[in-house]
Amino acid sequence: MDQAHYFNAEPGVPDVRRPLAVVLEGREVTLRTSAGIFSPDGIDKGTAVLLAQAPDPAPEGHLLDIGCGWGPIALTMALRSPAATVHAVDVNRRSLSLTLENATLLGLENVSAQLPEDVDPGLRFATIWSNPPIRIGKAELHALLRLWLPRLAVGGEAWLVVQKNLGADSLARWLAEELGGAYDVARAATSKGFRLLVVTRRS
Fold this sequence. Notes:
The protein has 5 helices and 9 strands. The chain is α/β, with parallel strands linked by helices and 203 residues long.
């Protein structure tokens, strides 16, 4: 599939929903997927690294998944932190619809899926998890991270998984320079060709 589809608000391929068998939090579940979204056939390698390596999200408050696709990150956050509110954002309306459908299938009532511009700008997030869309280009990626990372609550953490050969180390350097002294940026882990970066807001 032309990957440009999942960067569009309305993908240019038919929305034909089909079952998706995956394992989330040790449970075999059957969810729903469709064409025109990111990684429609399962959990991609980068997301799998994030879910395996990142510590549990904050147990309460507001949590954020940037670029939700069919929902593996948001659903995992919601399963691990049932007392928190998970906000799944994506520019792709089909992804938002699937994330909400899959949350319903799992009986999760703490997941909200919205376009970025519909999220309350006053919200501050205790935890952000993301497999950011590196392939949208550096300028667009930087704009995306500038939008969301300053919305971390003090003491909050953002965990980002980035493929090593797609500029993970240069992104870490840029984040440290861009965010300044109120934030710490570190490389937390390396696994299967991916870096796991953590951004912590100190003040």
